[in-house]
Design goal:
With 71 residues, this protein is an all-alpha fold. It has one domain (2-67). It is 82% helix and 0% strand. It has helices at residues 2-42, 46-53, 59-67. The longest helix is centred in the first third of the chain and has 41 residues, at 2-42. The termini are far apart. 0% of the residues are buried.
Length: 71
């Protein structure tokens, strides 16, 4: 009986962790998508908005930052 409870508990923790991580990633992606769409409507460069949310090691944003100079 205790082995079954332990197995079910561990499985529940693992599934909850995976579900939480998936939901967080999905929410972050949807937020970025809404912000990029809003930027396009306002005439702001969507790559700049994407890079505002990117990690520091994102090569696209590094190349964008070196290619685009502030006015």
């Amino acid at each position: 009986m205790n082995d079954n409870v332990l197995t079910v508990s561990i499985a529940l923790v693992i599934l909850t962790t995976i579900g939480s991580f998936t939901f967080y990633q999905y929410s972050e992606l949807k937020s970025l998508e809404r912000n990029v769409e809003s930027a396009i409507v306002k005439g702001i460069d969507p790559v700049a908005v994407r890079c505002a949310y990117a990690k520091q090691t994102d090569t696209i944003c590094i190349a964008y930052g070196t290619a685009v100079r502030p006015k």
